[in-house]
Specification:
heterodimer, A: 297 residues, 30% helix, B: 14 strands, globular
Chain lengths: 297, 481
């Protein structure tokens, strides 16, 4: 059961971040914000989890936005429309909990994490919520889907680390300002672990100045099967319990996640991953060189 | 043929040398040659009572197939086995025969004599069949039940031992059978759990291909409860369902330090190595490679993990088990193989804390000595900690092989399906669930058990689904156990 790549588009000039659309009509029928999928490119490939960034039942497609960090994601970034991958399974994990809140809710998306908040924003708007969206990118070049969020959200705030677009700084600054001035019923944050950690700290009510606001985060952990079988995705709660991101999440109560431990757990295979990526780059260079010598390029 | 005196002792099966095999993933047990099989088959005295048949969860006609082997009618012997067992090459390798058919063998009751090596003979005929595949005649369709006039569609959820067996039996009855599997490969625990050196994946593939030859369709990467619900399947005109989704939700210990890197479930470890082939450098799969590996637990999964660690280059591989050698739940053969390969047994020990370094990786494990007390509910002597006997075991990786809990993915998304207090599916003696068209069996009903007991459940469910689909299923008699 191969899955066809419908389109691939790089976001930003460094060709690390990319939007991938695949043909997966059955998955598109069932996928909702909060779900993830697992794919495998070829027979010797890893199974990697990716959060659903959009689903289109009419076209039968699933969209993901991926940051090339290791071999598999780099290999994925080189695929183009019409290419095929051998395995694509989903939707996995729990759907986001969608309901109508009395007061506004805030979505925070950082980096590639901007993408998976999109379907949730859409569903929360459909449920009749007032939605404020904060989008954080390293630089203007890496910001994407601003138009989509402008169209959906009641307010959109943009931050860039280097100040090349929107406000200079991190997402927690505007979040703090919002929490100081109005009642917010819920916050959803998806992005790098470090960003989610600080969003959760901001909404924890710990400093006594700001209220505690229920906050959902999406955990993108190391996993194999995605169905509860391996336990590789387990994370520790603040009370020391063990939960599985795949079947208890991936969207979980951010105030209950031990982020420091999770950051350590996510670096579990870092040496292997680096070695594998270096070998892959080496291979690509060798192939390129061979092609050049054959006069193909 | 002149009547020869029976060999009292079973015919040995050759194995790869222990020192050699710990450096490869090739199969340890090499199987009988024809001569060895004939010699062993001649040991069956064809007793009238056939206790072995009753000892087999799928009731293989054991004396009959052994008699056919003795007559060198290997093809007929294989057909005889396959009448009730669709996966003989697998069962011949992984069944705990010593506690089933072989335990009750009449030959084993004679003083100084050992039971007939039924498992090895089963493996022999199955392997013979695979080696002579091309010569096998195409089976005619006479056996197919003509009462299934229009081919009714049945769905099997999960392609593990229970589901595969159920599918095979239903296909033989003449149904249009589709198996839905969550992973990208078919076989369940046979492909993700049991290592290559105990059950080569090529054997699993071939045995499953015989099911597809019977017309069974297999859809991988298809999670029932997620991609399709049972209701969706009903809309696709499936008329009965078998849930054999397994008990895949690994249990962890309630001791500090479970969160460190280098602590992982046996499920994850074995899946990375077996399904995802981390032992082969062509594959991109990462796996933890400890030098001093401690495996918690004493079952087959623990043995598989400890032996896998040696093959992945561990200097030391240790089983840490809270009871004594006598209580080890693993098959004796697996225990012996592990000992031969140099696995260390730290018995009557229980972890109290996993110790980690500043980067969050395992650097040791504190254990406490145990002693055995009174019998507990399981009929085994209860392990009791001996306060003050704690010490630190030098280890850099901990594999947790203490069992699994019920997997919730299918059950949680099937409203109305009655579960017990541990979230396993409740079935009656017909293997029927609280929803009449859904049957279930295997680990998702019993909790973690053996391949063959799952197959037995799959077979029984198939027979009852056949009755159900003809409107002939009677409710079970209350007192029946």
């Amino acid at each position: 059961m191969v899955t066809k790549i419908r389109s691939k588009r790089f976001i930003g000039s460094d060709e690390n971040l990319f939007e991938l659309v695949v043909d997966a009509p059955f998955v598109a029928n069932k996928a909702r914000g909060g779900n993830f999928i697992i794919l495998r490119i070829d027979e010797t490939g890893e199974r990697i989890p990716l959060t659903v960034a959009d689903y289109d039942q009419k076209k039968g497609t699933i969209t993901m936005v991926v940051m090339a960090v290791g071999k598999t994601t780099t290999q994925l970034s080189k695929l183009k429309a019409g290419d095929e991958i051998i395995d694509f399974v989903g939707p996995l994990g729990n759907k986001a909990h969608i309901k109508k809140y009395d007061h506004p809710i805030v979505f925070v998306g950082g980096g590639a994490g901007i993408a998976p908040i999109y379907p949730q924003v859409k569903e929360m708007k459909d449920a009749g919520n007032y939605v404020i969206t904060i989008l954080g990118a390293r630089t203007k070049d890496l910001l994407f889907w601003e138009d989509r969020f402008q169209e959906l959200s009641d307010e959109v705030i943009i931050t860039t680390d280097d100040g090349s677009y929107g406000r200079k700084g991190v997402v927690t600054v505007p979040l703090k300002e919002i929490l100081q001035t109005q009642t917010i019923d819920h916050v959803v944050a998806i992005g790098p672990l470090i960003m989610m950690k600080y969003v959760v700290l901001t909404t924890s009510g710990k400093d006594g100045e700001l209220p505690r606001v229920p906050t959902t985060v999406s955990l993108n952990t190391i996993m194999v099967d995605g169905t509860g079988m391996c336990g590789g995705c387990r994370f520790q709660t603040m009370t020391g319990d063990i939960k599985f991101a795949c079947v208890d999440g991936p969207d979980v109560d951010g105030h209950d996640v031990d982020f420091d431990n999770l950051m350590e757990r996510n670096s579990r295979f870092i040496d292997f991953e680096k070695k594998r990526l270096d070998e892959y780059h080496e291979q690509c260079r060798a192939i390129q060189k061979h092609k050049e010598s054959m006069g193909e390029v | 043929m002149a009547k020869k005196k029976l060999n009292k002792v079973r015919t040995l099966m050759s194995e790869q040398d222990a020192q050699e095999r710990i450096h490869n993933f090739n199969e340890v047990a090499l199987g009988y040659t024809k001569e060895q099989a004939l010699l062993e088959a001649s040991r069956c005295i064809q007793c009238k009572n056939q206790p072995c048949v009753a000892g087999c969860p799928v009731e293989v006609a054991i004396p009959d197939f052994i008699a056919l082997i003795a007559e060198e009618r290997f093809e007929d012997a294989l057909s005889k086995v396959k009448e009730t067992n669709v996966l003989p090459a697998i069962c011949g390798r992984v069944c705990p025969q010593e506690t089933q058919c072989e335990e009750v063998c009449a030959m084993g009751r004679v003083k100084g004599s050992s039971p007939v090596a039924i498992g090895r003979l089963e493996r022999f005929v199955a392997d013979w069949g695979m080696a002579h595949e091309d010569e096998a005649p195409v089976e005619d369709e006479q056996d197919i039940d003509t009462k299934v006039s229009k081919k009714k569609k049945v769905a099997i959820i999960g392609a593990g031992p229970a589901g595969l067996t159920c599918a095979g039996e239903l296909a033989k009855f003449g149904y249009d059978v589709t198996i839905f599997e969550a992973l990208h490969k078919t076989g369940g625990v046979l492909v993700y759990g049991i290592p290559e050196f105990r059950l080569p994946k090529e054997i699993v593939r071939k045995e499953i291909s015989m099911l597809t030859d019977l017309g069974v369709k297999i859809k991988v990467n298809t999670i029932i409860g997620k991609l399709f619900t049972v209701d969706d399947l009903r809309e696709m005109e499936f008329e009965a369902f078998f849930a054999g989704v397994g008990a895949g939700l690994p249990a962890f210990l309630n001791v500090p330090g479970m969160e460190y890197n280098g602590v992982l479930s046996a499920n994850e470890y074995l899946t990375r190595v077996n399904l995802m082939k981390a032992y082969d450098s062509d594959y991109d799969t990462p796996v933890d490679k400890g030098q001093r590996v401690a495996v918690l637990g004493g079952g087959n999964v623990a043995m598989d993990s400890a032996r896998t660690a040696l093959r992945l280059g561990a200097e030391k591989s240790m089983i840490v088990y809270r009871r004594s050698e006598k209580e080890l739940p693993a098959r004796h053969e697996e225990y012996e193989h592990a000992v031969e390969e140099g696995v260390e047994f730290h018995l009557l020990r229980n972890p109290t804390e996993i110790l980690g370094d500043e980067d969050g990786f395992v650097k040791g494990m504190e254990v406490i000595k145990m002693e055995l007390g009174e019998l507990d509910d399981s009929g085994r002597r209860r392990p009791i900690a001996r306060p003050g006997t704690e010490y630190v075991l030098d280890t850099d990786m901990v594999i947790v092989a203490i069992g699994a809990r019920a997997n919730p993915v299918m059950t949680k998304n099937t409203p109305g399906l009655k579960l017990n207090q541990w979230n396993y599916i409740e079935v009656d003696a017909n293997m029927q669930t609280s929803i009449p068209d859904i049957f279930a069996g295997g680990d998702i009903v019993t909790g973690a058990a053996t391949v063959i007991s799952a197959m037995g459940a799959g077979r029984k469910a198939a027979e009852n689904m056949h009755k159900y689909l003809r409107g002939e299923l009677e409710p079970p008699i209350e007192d029946e156990e």
